[in-house]
Amino acid sequence: MPDRKPLSVMNPNDKVEQLRQAFAAEPSAKKMSDESLIDRAADSTLSDRQKVLKEKVIDAIRTVYDPEIPVNVYDLGLIYGIDIDPENRVKVTMTLTAPGCPVAGQIVAEVEKKVEEVDEVKSGEVELVFEPQWTKERMSEAALLDLGLI
Questions:
Q1: In this structure, which topology does domain 12-146 adopt according to CATH?
Q2: Which helix (H) or strand (E) element contains residue 91?
Q3: Helices marked H in 29-139
């Protein structure tokens, strides 16, 4: 697998164009998008109540948009995990399109705020990680369509 380089943030206004160029230069391989609704429903590690809560959390996260790319952070593939404990404390593991993202603090704070606004959530926490590195393959089909990449 070739080394994947994060998107440049030197000219963040051109991030969508950078994505288009990356797709043109290297067609997408196997999709790494997040688990589907069916996968989440079949998850035996969560109770039915937690499964419903996870869907509400995902819906809330989908209202957060990367200001540089007009796609929500969930469909952009920035959410790596959503863990819910028995007391409804939610931990979101996420990344950014590039470690030097100029709006990192804003995006992370907004995700945490939206998660905590879900009625059943006792508390929300966001962990920002950069491993594995975000790549364009993490984007959902909806995001690819929104950006005109497929």
A1: GMP Synthetase; Chain A, domain 3 (3.30.300)
A2: strand 89-94
A3: 37-41, 48-61, 104-116
What pLDDT, on the 0 to 100 scale, is given for residue 70?
85
Phi first, then psi, for residue 2 (nearest 5°) are -70, 155
pLDDT higher than 60, residue 25: yes
Element housing 95 (H / E):
none
pLDDT for res 36: 66
43 phi/psi in degrees, rounded to 5: -65, 110
Task: Give the Cα separation of 116 and 23 in Å (integer).
Answer: 35
The model's pTM:
0.77
Check whether 148 has a pLDDT greater than 80: yes
Judge if the upstream peptide bond of residue 132 is cis by omega within 30 degrees of 0: yes
Residue 39: phi and psi, rounded to 5, are: -60, -45
